[in-house]
Amino acid sequence: MECIFCKIATKKIASKIVFEDDEYIAFNDIKPQAPVHVIIIPKKHIDSLNYIEKEDNALIGGLLNIAKKIAYDQGVSETGYRTVINCNKDAGQEVFHIHLHLIGGRKMSWPPG
Fold it and tell me: Is 73 inside any structural domain?
């Protein structure tokens, strides 16, 4: 059974896509926590950080390169942005397909919550 992010990646569910290539897709979060809130996923399904394998290292690193590009494109690279990968329920992971949140466009606080 495909998760909701796999369905977005295969276009079975519509989403506002801000970036896509052969390995990744990025789209606006449906419950944004800031003016810029983009979800970046590998098209390969990996449940969470706990399930990445050594052969996934380049794929996971690519999430950060795409975040940098999107932050620039969205106009938050200079003012600042946050990247977050939640792992499992207590950390706030709701969809079990590894994903990176790119959040920006407002002043962030610490600790994040």
Answer: yes
